[in-house]
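Lab manual, section 2.4: Encoding a predicted structure.

Procedure: take the sequence of the chain (190 residues), apply the prediction step described in section 2.3, and record the output as structure tokens. A sample record is shown.
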Amino acid sequence: MALKVELKPNERIIIGNCVITNTDQRARLLIDGDKIPILREKDILTPETADTPAKLVYLAVQLMYISPDPQVNHGTYFNLVRDIVTAAPSAWPIIEGINNHILNGDLYQALKEARKLVAYEKKLLDHNEAVQGKHDAGTEERARPEGVVYIASGGDCSTFSTRPSSKDDRRAPKSSTAVISASISQVSVR
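Recorded output:
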């Protein structure tokens, strides 16, 4: 059965290892094939937009999904996951789901599960901001160190260093920068 995809004007889509950009009118595509990686523009993260630990995990899974050899990105993925579980152990059930899909070779489902991790991280960060806001109310506002994300896990708040938050240096942590940059150069959507 063919997959029906409707593209908005100027929308991009990745099919296999090709980036296809629509013209200035809506288009409808029928894509037929077995296990061809397909990603719509709204589901694509780039190294520039992967600005949180969970988004970096999503990016690593995305690279596995579109890569002819997904195992190339396994090391990066597992390093990122280890850091997240250390900072927020409550994320383990979601990460376990991602891991199971990866091990079964179902990378599209792993990518869907990674979206849940991004949503969970946002929920934790929003909760922490609310808690931090209540804590800082009535006191001098403390400056948050650059490159530190506060993650609420259970009843406590843990810190997780990601990267400097300045616009001049928007790269992943050194352990994964080279692998992600090399992999994303295969398919660049900008």
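Check your result against the sample. Confidence is low (pLDDT under 50) at residues 144-190.
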